[in-house]
Amino acid sequence: MASPPALTPELELELFQLIGDSQTTNYMAAAATTVLVFEHLLTFPQEVKYVWQCRRISIWAMLYVWIRYIPLVLSIIDLNFIFMEIKSNTVCRGFLLSEMVTVTINSVIVDGILFLRVWILYNKSRMLVFLFTPIMIIQAAAMITIGALTIGPLKDYIHVGPILKGCYSFTVPRIFTFYAVPLLATSTTMFFMTLYKCGQHLFGVRFMRMPIVTLFLRDGVFLFLTILVYSAAELTIWSTLRPTLAEVVIMPAMALHSVVGARILLNIKSLVGTQCQGSLSTIPTTATRTAMTFHTPPIPRAEERVPWYLRTGELSDSSDPEEEELEKELYGAV
């Protein structure tokens, strides 16, 4: 019986690089899933208080459930695939296509969170709805099209036995580089709209304490920086590095989407958390709270203490009409 051909130094180097790339992808995926699980455990008490105990089902709550749980479920499914030896090209193609579609929907959901914040800042303008609805549809269509044009031509995947798990190809169309561009463009537009409106509010009152505006500005900056950092990483990897590293940032990016998006929604829910316990008519308005300006605020319990960069603060005790209007908009939406 003929012995298998010996590996040339070039093929041996490619094989070692491929195995190293697959291990890097696996480690990043496992780390991203671990972060998601840890974040779920860390914020579950707040989730129960501000989401599940609320009788009212709002668009914010539905967005929260999606951005909180779908990425975790998808991460667990992905881990099952990338740590498994897959011998079928059809299975690889189907897995990558379904992953791409789900990641795209998740990205659009994050943009939806950004849009709702912008919508409230701009007094629920119908013009913004008519403007951004087609933009977000085009964004989703563009990302799915780019993903399909990337995965569709991949007919053969690398199968070298148990030492290589998951689905990898030596060739990935460079059009995949542009997959992150639609999300980055839309998010950048809404970030600068948020920056402009929040700056207008703060400058208008000479930086008087406005917790709602400050919260929207701070969380908007965090989310935009998150999208900017991982989009830059994706563009760099997909345009310059080896094709076998194409999947290395997908699950970490999805985990960051989930963590930051869910935190933003929890911050907004906690800001108007009293609505979970009663109707709008029982909530104290800004005007009634001004009489309690000098009351000592309650000390938060240990499980409710959060770092300064995630702290929402209390609602405004100022009588600024713009802050009051934003407060009413939040109560009506959340």
Automatic annotation (TrEMBL):
Residues 317-327 have a biased composition (Acidic residues). Signal peptide: none annotated. InterPro entries: DUF6533. Keywords: Membrane, Transmembrane, Transmembrane helix. Residues 27-73 form the DUF6533 domain. The keyword Transmembrane helix applies. Residues 313-334 are annotated as: Disordered. The chain crosses the membrane at residues 27-45, 57-83, 95-116, 128-152, 172-195, 215-233, 245-266. This is DUF6533 domain-containing protein.
